[in-house]
Each structure stands twice: as C-alpha cells, then as structure tokens.
Amino acid sequence: MTTHKNRVDPVITLLPLIGIALFVIFYIIAAIYYPGGSYAAPNRPGFSFKNNYLCDLLDNHAINGAFNSARIYARIALAILCLSLILLWYYLPKLFNRKNKAQTIMSIAGMLSMVITLFLASEVHDIIVRTAGVFGVTALLIAFIELYNANYYKLLIHGIICLFFFLTNYYIYETEILIDKLPVIQKITFLSCMSWFVLLSIHSYRKLVST
C-alpha cells in the first residue's frame, strides 16, 4: 500500500526558480536607482558593471557619499534569494535515491549558509562572508560527492566550476591580487552559481515527478 504522508509536491522544488527571477528583477531596479561611485571611480554616477560590487547596492550610503535609495530593493532581492536557496537546500536530498546522514548535513549546512547571508548588509560584512562561505563550501563538497554517486556528472562538473570561481573570488579578496578585476569576476561567479541552482531545481522537480 502506497503512503502519501511524506510525499512532496514537485512544484515546490521550482519555487527557487521564481525566487531567483525575482532577485534579478529587484537587483536590476536597485542598480538603476544606485546614486553612484565605486572604489575605482568614487565620483562616477550610477552603477558600474565593471567597477561596482553587488554588495555596494546594500549599503546605506553609496560610495560617492549620497544616500543610497537603491538599498531597499537590493535588500528585498537578497532576502528573496536567500529564502529561495534555503528552500532549495532543504529539498535537495529529494534528488537522490539513496538517503544518508551526509545529505542531512549538506542540507543543514546549505541552509545555514543562506541564513547567515541574510545579514550581509550588516556592519560585519567580512565576517558574514567568511562564515557563510565555510558552511556553503561544506554543503557544496557533500553535494559533489552525492552527485557523483548518483551519476549526475554534468551537474557535478557545473558545481565544481562554481566552486572554482568562488575560491578565486575569495583568493583575490584576501590577497588583493587582481583586485581591480574582482567586480567582474564576482558577477561571473554569481551567474555561474545561479545557473547551477536553477539546474538543481529543475532536476529535483523532474525527479519527484517521475517517482
């Protein structure tokens, strides 16, 4: 006899896609309203794809000293994204046929990483980044092992590329080597990771639909 007690509606696994889309929309709005200034060009008006960091949009004041009217949109975007990825990490174990404790650790670590990231706009930005990064990398490494064991090789390779970009960001941030290139590398990293999360959501949906 089949039980529906623990059955999950597959559509729930697609909610992160909506969240990611909303994040992009709100961040574009935030970039439009950003007063201006970057570390490379403090007095330049507007948001620069080449010189501004995504985190610049979260601050109370823009780098040029003006009140940052973009911050409300950026913070809404961040909250939506983190909540969406919390949901993704929560349901990600559903992607795998064989369940184990490592997947539980992966799920918890991934969710903790996103909960901590919610406070990115606080005064302890660097601590938030490093702490969230530790939990995030832990979740990623376990996810890679599980993807390999489940023969999701394309997802595995994509994930490893994301981790490579992430570690590159961290290395540049800490050493300041090629620091002038970091804003662009940050955005490439972000796009790579978001596309990976989209694929994970789609595969989780397909997995639940087929069972």
UniProtKB/TrEMBL annotation:
Keyword Ribonucleoprotein: no
Keywords, in A-Z order: Membrane, Transmembrane, Transmembrane helix
TM spans (from-to): 12-34, 72-92, 104-121, 127-148, 155-172, 184-202
Keyword Transmembrane helix (UniProt): yes
Protein name: DUF998 domain-containing protein
Organism name: Algibacter agarivorans
